RNA sequence: GGGCCACUAGCUCAGGCGGUAGAGCACCGGACUUUUAAUCCGGGUGUCGCGGGUUCGAGUCCCGCGUGGCUCACCA
């Protein structure tokens, strides 16, 4: 049982100490990584190298032993023999357990079987592992343990390391793309007195000294637009967002978004920007814009299909909601089996039909344009149809990837929209926007015409790493505590 | 929140119709100086998620609970 194993390994800790060796060693100077030795073997053969890593396998052969150790770059074999190490050091080598972390100095060589290895001339125990590692070829499968003890997942499942390495590269590529185009990365508060910028329920916290409730941000939008008012014409923020909502394979309570704002631009510019950003990231991280996601081929090569929501809904349901009277639209919705209130406008009816019948069927990246005003309280209304806005979403693999619009910069219109949201809120809609007088004040100073875009970074990482669940791309996803 | 499924050794898993709990790896003891899923000899290490119930007898059947997965709903 585990207790026996723990006790056995703790006894080994004492064994090391009794020999005057601290089993939790100090700094070890490495000359190479495992991959460097393997990649540069022709120059390193016969040379002395120092490497460190975790012991992943131990094959003892009496007076000689083979150990596989792993560092961040990869795996390499160690060869220790009694002749070279002497009685005492060889005895210590045989005391090493799988899972221990060792530092080794030795000579790079190739074994009879052709494997590049290090012949150990001296070694140090750098950290003693008290618990056994998961099984060596099936790895760790239990997703509960994988998420709760991610370090184990990273230790034994190489594809998990690859996913998180790609995540890091994706985030770097996003910054490269935007920085190179003159966008300024900024940091705005995570704690808000008013939670705005999205329709979502916030987490609530409390500031003791000010004795006030604060909300964790549900979006970065309203602060970034204040910066546009202030003259920072091209800004972006890459950061954590918190929404107090359900957990699913596509939702984690805290997730990462990128929001970009550009003064004097509109939603057409945001379409180009979004296509360019995603294509750049895919190309620079994966070397291709065509990926496979959960068995589907997805091609991010621009330009993406662009269609209005009205067209998309008409194609799927045969109904042209925009040509209907309000009562007809409600009736049409109900005929489709959707529940909508009596007073629902044509736009709301259309977006209900869109979400139910269209969104999940859009696999290739698709720009769905001209969202109804009812569901777009921060987007500028269309000049040719005040029921619609200059807003689009990018849908891919049947889910939202990005959301963008020509920003509403008319303070009077914005005030009316907030008032409508507040009315919704008073009817019990906890996700409707709160009134944000300070944001209205900012708009009253004049915000230039602006295009803005927000993109779910975790979802982009999912698409580019072929991950089925958002929990597979977040190092430490939220889990209910055990017990 | 609803439905379905899973939970057995450190890990990965098997356990027909209720009858003393199994394998591989890991681990423990022994042999072995170029192995690599090392090999050979010997050893099974367990609160079958938790709590009740039915039964002569429960890993197995029933009820409740917990955690997780999938899914629907909700949600950008």
Q: Level of helix content?
A: 25-40%
Residue-averaged pLDDT: 94
Q: What is the tally of helical segments? A: 15
| Beta-strand segment tally | 18
Cα Rg: 29 Å
How far the N terminus sits from the C terminus, by CA atoms, comes to 21 Å
Low-confidence blocks of residues: none
Strand line-up across the major sheet: 6-10-11-18-17-16-15-14
Q: Kindly estimate the percentage of residues that lie in beta strands according to DSSP.
A: 25-35%
SSE class? alpha+beta
Biggest sheet, in brief? 8 strands, mixed
The global form is elongated
Written description of the protein model:
Helices cover 35% and strands 25% of the residues. It has helices spanning 2-18, 34-39, 41-44, 82-93, 143-148, 150-156, 158-180, 221-229, 267-286, 309-317, 326-335, 346-357, 411-426, 437-444, 457-465; strands spanning 48-61, 64-71, 74-81, 101-110, 116-127, 184-185, 191-192, 204-207, 212-216, 234-242, 254-263, 290-293, 296-299, 305-308, 366-369, 391-396, 399-406, 450-456. The strands form 4 sheets. An 8-stranded mixed beta sheet has the order 6-10-11-18-17-16-15-14, with helices on both faces. The protein has a 5-stranded mixed β-barrel with strand order 1-2-3-5-4. The protein has a 3-stranded antiparallel beta sheet with strand order 7-9-8, with no helix packed on it. Helix 11 (326-335) packs parallel to helix 12 (346-357). The model has no long low-confidence stretch (mean pLDDT 94). The chain binds one RNA strand of 76 nucleotides through helix 1, strand 1, strand 2, strand 3 and helix 5.
């Amino acid at each position: 049982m585990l207790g026996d194993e723990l006790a056995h390994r703790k006894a080994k800790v004492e064994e090391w100490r009794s020999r005057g060796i601290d089993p939790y060693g100090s700094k070890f100077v490495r000359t190479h990584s495992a991959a460097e030795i393997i990649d540069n073997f022709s120059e390193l053969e016969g040379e002395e190298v120092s490497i460190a890593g975790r012991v992943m396998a131990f094959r003892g052969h009496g007076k000689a032993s083979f150990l596989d150790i792993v560092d961040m770059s990869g795996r390499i074999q160690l060869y220790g023999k009694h002749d070279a190490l002497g009685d005492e050091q060889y005895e210590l080598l045989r005391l090493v357990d799988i899972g221990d972390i060792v530092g080794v100095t030795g000579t790079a060589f190739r074994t009879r079987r052709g494997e590049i290895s290090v012949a150990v001339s001296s070694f140090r125990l750098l950290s003693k592992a008290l618990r056994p590692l998961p099984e060596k070829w099936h790895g760790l499968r239990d997703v509960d343990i994988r998420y709760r003890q991610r370090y184990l997942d990273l230790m034994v499942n190489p594809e998990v390391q690859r996913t998180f390495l790609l995540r890091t590269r994706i985030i770097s590529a996003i910054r490269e793309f935007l920085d190179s185009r003159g966008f300024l990365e900024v940091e705005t508060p995570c704690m808000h007195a008013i939670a705005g910028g999205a329709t979502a329920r916030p987490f609530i916290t409390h500031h003791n000294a000010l004795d006030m409730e604060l909300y964790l941000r549900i979006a970065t939008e309203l602060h970034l637009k204040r910066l546009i008012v202030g003259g920072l014409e091209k800004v972006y923020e890459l950061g954590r967002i918190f929404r107090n909502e359900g957990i699913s394979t596509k939702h984690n309570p805290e997730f990462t978004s990128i929001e970009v704002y550009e003064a004097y631009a509109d939603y057409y510019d945001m379409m180009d920007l979004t296509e360019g950003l995603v294509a750049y990231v895919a190309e620079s991280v994966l070397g291709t814009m065509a990926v496979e996601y959960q068995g589907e081929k997805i091609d991010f090569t621009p330009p993406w299909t662009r269609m209005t929501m009205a067209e998309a809904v008409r194609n799927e349901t045969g109904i042209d909601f925009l040509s209907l009277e309000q009562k007809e639209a409600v009736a049409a919705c109900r005929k489709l089996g959707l529940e909508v209130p009596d007073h629902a406008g044509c736009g709301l009816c259309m977006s209900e039909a869109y979400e139910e019948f269209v969104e999940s069927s859009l696999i290739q990246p698709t720009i769905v344009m001209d969202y109804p005003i009812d569901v777009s309280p921060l987007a500028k209304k269309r000049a040719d149809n005040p029921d619609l806005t200059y807003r689009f979403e990018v849908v891919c693999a049947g889910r939202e990837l990005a959301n963008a619009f020509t920003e509403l910069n008319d303070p009077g219109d914005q005030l009316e929209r907030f008032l409508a949201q507040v009315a919704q809120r008073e009817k019990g809609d906890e996700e409707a926007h709160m009134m944000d007088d300070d944001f209205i004040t900012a708009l009253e100073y004049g915000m230039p015409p602006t295009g803005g875009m927000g993109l779910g970074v975790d979802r982009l990482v999912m698409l580019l790493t072929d991950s089925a669940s958002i929990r597979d791309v977040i190092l430490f996803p939220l889990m209910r505590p055990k017990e």
